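#structure-requests
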Amino acid sequence: MDKHLLTRIKSKYSHLSKGQKLIADFIGEHYDEAAFMTASKLGETVGVSESTVVRFACELGYGGYPKLQKAMQEMIRDKLTSVQRIDVTCDRIGGSDVLDSVLNQDIEKIRKTIEETSREDFNNAVKAIVNAENIYIYAVRSTSPLANFLGYYFELIFGNVRVINTSSKSAAYEQLFRITEKDVMIGISFPRYSTMAVDVMHFARERGADVIALTDSMISPLVSQADHLLIARSDMASVVDSLVAPLSMINALIVATVIEKKEEVKETFLALEQVWKEQGIYASTETGKKEFVEENGEK
């Protein structure tokens, strides 16, 4: 049998016992948590015996709980195919309100991120960024906007930032080859993990740079390359990658670095505000109000 875990559960669901269905439902919604639970802990969490969990694994064709656990961990590591993600998303939401379901799932991802992120790692990452001579940020594909967002604010704050979001090896290393022990590299990747993200982080680490990983779990391949690890949950079984928690983590990094460099950043933004004002970068709400009155009259 070479079926994906969630496919196996779906095909066997109607034949499962009541207790086994509880396990199936929990894994369907919380496989990222279940992947790191023992059989005993999983049984305790859903309210069944450890033996029921073992029988459930065998019922799915895994021959024991360790193989089921490995399947859950591989599910996190390798992610679902696009077609599987569509099927799983439709099954999970069913007839529920889509907006309510998606937003509440994102809220849950942020809650788990708060619980799982090491404050020590976060604070050390902030120190490494603040003290770096140059800041390199690497992310590709769906996580590329995260790198651009972080890079935009860090460029305003520090002015020594290079965002690398190419999958081309030659282009990536051409932008990275000057990295030294005085610099910091921030690698961002979520399932399916980018091989290039792992490679460029390894390159930066060999050059002595501080390496920060922003990823989703301890089994991410980025973990082995990181000096500082920032865990932010994403949803691997959704039609789209949920990057709400990773973006919140990035917001926290930006705020923390601003606090660390408060006086310098205030001077920078005072100067920027003057330039923005002189160049008319931002539209005034008064201008919009005036145009509305001219077109519609006073009300």
